[in-house]
Amino acid sequence: MQSLVTRRPDDWHLHLRDGAMLEGILPHSSANFARALIMPNLVRPVIRSVDAAAYRNRIVAALPIGHSFEPFMTLYLTEATDPTDVEAGFRDGLVCAVKLYPAGATTNSDSGVREIERVMPVLERMAKIGLPLCVHGEVTDPAVDIFDREAVFIERLLLPLRERLPELRIVMEHITTKDGVDFVASQTKNTAATITTHHLIINRNTVLAGGIRPHYYCLPIVKRESHRLSLRAAATSGDRRFFLGTDSAPHADPTKECACGCAGIFTAINTISCVAEVFEQEGALDRLEGFIAINGAAFYGRSPNEERITLIRDAEPLKFPTKIETGAGMVTVFDPQMPLRWRTKRADIAT
Ligand code: NCD
Ligand code: ZN
Question: Which atom of ligand 1 lies nearest, measured to the CA of 101?
């Protein structure tokens, strides 16, 4: 039996939803992760600091007894966002980042940004106070092919913004292409990227070849194999600008298994096992801790967790549920289509 000890991980991009769904899925994140950056794209988005405070309270109230988990809150950037409110939330220690969704780019993004010029006062304030901007990096221009939307976003929006506000701390969320990797690697400061679990494992054939598989559909959509390989190389490189943001994004099955299914993949349950498997395949288990527990904390100016977890490699593949029941319906769990053998063990929680 092989085992390794790492600091307890953090998830730098997580969708926890609200109400019955929140209650059903939160324990799967809080069992593994010490902290997570909580995405603000609720049906009624988390726009003002007061909304973030209320949402934070609902998350903390939904935590199972005995789980220690700290939600880091984000605000949803709109063209009406008030820089003073953003700064107040940051000064209170409540707001850890602001999320930019191009309007229409993904789930619940209709209140997002149409014209970057209109949010410049907020971005300038954030650059001044050191508050990070998390970016959903896809253009929404219908003329741009869905598989090119990340690369075009970098060209049209990110590079000019980077030049205009060099002090703004930017995280390109869930990068899916070599273009995303290269963009981040080309920057000397204030730029990082999250990489999801599933983008390390699947490519667009998984979604589309031999039948359409809605449970592998997410945004930004997974790309061709060469891009997946770039992401794996970046994640396992030890480069501190890349870190785990699972983008675990549950939707009740009927809303995915239909004529126009929602984007989002639910990985919270088996994420650590999946990522450990990837790092083992890449011969990079010695870099796993950096990717899941150190690099992200460093970018966000936090100390890494002191608590340790043990990862144990079992001889037999683990059995994860294929679906979980929540008060908001059944949710399908990400199937990595490979045996998973690494399980996490914590001293304080029976696993
Ligand atoms: C996310 C969701 O469902 O909220 N979906 C997804 O496919 N990743 C939104 C997002 O992060 O784009
Ligand atoms: Zn997301």
Answer: 12
